[in-house]
Amino acid sequence: MAADSFALPPHPKIAKGKKLAVIILDGWGEQVDDQYNAIHVADTPTMDSLKKGRPDTWRLVKAHGPAVGLPKEDDMGNSEVGHNALGAGRIFEQGAGLVDTALQTGKLFQGEGFKHIQGAFPEGTLHLIGLLSDGGVHSRLDQIQALIKGSAENGAKRIRVHFLTDGRDVLDGSSLYFVDELEKTLKEVQEATGSDCKIASGGGRMEVTMDRYENDWNVVKRGWDAQVLGEAPHKFKSATEALKKLKEADPKVNDQYYPPFVIVDDEGKAVGPIVDGDAVVTFNFRADRMVMLAKALEYEDFKSFDRVRWPKIRYAGMLQYDGELKLPAHYLVSPPEIDRTSGEYLVHNGIRTFACSETVKFGHVTFFWNGNRSGQFSQELEEYVEIPSDTGITFNVQPEMKAILIAERTRDAILSGKFDVVRVNLPNGDMVGHTGDFHATVVGCATADKAVKIILDAIEQVGGIFLVTADHGNAEDMVKRNPKTAQPVLDKNGQLQILTSHTCAPVPIAIGGPGLPQNVRFRKDLPNGGLANVAATTLNLLGFEAPADYEPSLVEADFNEGEFRNLVVDLAIMFSHASYSLLFSKAPSF
Ligand SMILES: O=C(O)[C@H](O)COP(=O)(O)O
Ligand SMILES: [Mn+2]
Ligand SMILES: [Mn+2]
């Protein structure tokens, strides 16, 4: 597309020139207000004040299922699809659905990526690495099963699976079930095709491999040692034995945090290290938590940790994870082509942008926001600030996270006058919510609310506009519920089942600030509005018309500000004429 076609016409009724703050509360949905809703229990005066009695400037938007490009209505939202929709202003079919289609049509096994790995099948082993659950956020069990089956049918003679247990997008403790299902599939495929299929290593997703945004390379190194080198502090004969024994040894260990382990044969030898001539597929479709491993597997020049051995392999991602870096070079399914994001439009229209979060969410307001593209569109017009996250602790230990620092940096950016728009992600509701620690999540939500206040105060000072929303639910529901009655479900011991995952709840969106023109309010004719409608909304608030193919803006302006000012002046003149006429007992002459 030619650069000038990025030029956006001015909005006919909303003037340019007001500073805009776009605040994303990560994992902050709207749900029944009971004692399991950490947002409800938390002290959140700022968010409460944006809602109460403000139907024109507060509403809910959809953040799950097809509204954000996911295959099914019961697919909970997540950060990738949520921020993609927020930034791109359109709904793209996301990785989950694209992989489904490629598997159903069989195209996955005919594409360039599969042909690439197939080259290793005659002599080498096919290794499959990724998250084992049916969460549907990073990967899905049924896709992994289809991939194993299809690979064996298409020539893979030896398959080794290196899995990561979940407990974050699904209930903690469910990993035993998923391992069982995986073992069944491996056995079935082995019997049906004669391929030698085994689990080779494992570990919990937060402890092994699935770090993101380079927060802690040790996580990836622990995985590398187990998956590639076949070395880990724990060795077992089977994955089921591993999960059971590790839990017995340390009852506090949970699915998210299992230490790395390798599966060994009767001689104690690892059954599946990755060696020269092998093929590797990282089967997560979601990018953020696979990029670091992809770099370790793919880059010759790599210094983030000592790989000890860098095997010469044929590697493919389930998808290409980074369109800008072209990482990895080979992939089984083409990623959604998220183009012409709102960030790109802004730089073409001279808007100066500040984006900020802490490491664990930094890529959300940059990489995901920009359509899974690393780097800035413009060095001159954009500044991206990353506040280092805590490492080596779970976020319930420090539930305040870096929210106040993010807010203070953003406040300073607003007051500096150097930016037209700031966008931030406040991580607490999500990151602390994922720990399942209710009280810590309450503290996290209260902190996020304080951070919102800091940013809103700065907007007040500069006469600007704010837009506060969220990317999906999490902290508003911390227990598993019966879908019909909404009552909490107890486990067989009569205990509440803690919900560590996201939800399908809608999320709030609020606009305001002294710069919000009095003629602007939320439309009432978009009851099904979702996150993809937010980009056009922000462009409007900056005084631009949104691109024609963007999902419609959530705001309407019933007359323009100039008209509004004229009306006020006319009324004032009328009033003074009337007073004058009355004073001199003459009939008003207008
Ligand atoms: O990766 C994670 O932390 C979870 O699977 C999903 O959380 P997010 O979508 O909020 O990042
Ligand atoms: Mn999120
Ligand atoms: Mn999350």
TrEMBL record:
Keyword ATP-binding in record: no
Molecular function terms from GO: metal ion binding; phosphoglycerate mutase activity
Any Pfam family matching the protein: iPGM_N
Keyword Metal-binding applies: yes
Major enzyme class: isomerase
Domain BPG-independent PGAM N-terminal: 99-322
Annotated Metalloenzyme domain residues: 18-545
GO biological process: glycolytic process; response to carbon dioxide; stomatal movement
InterPro entries hit by this protein: Alkaline_phosphatase_core_sf, BPG-indep_PGM_N, Metalloenzyme, PGAM_B_sf, Pgm_bpd_ind
Protein name (record): phosphoglycerate mutase (2,3-diphosphoglycerate-independent)
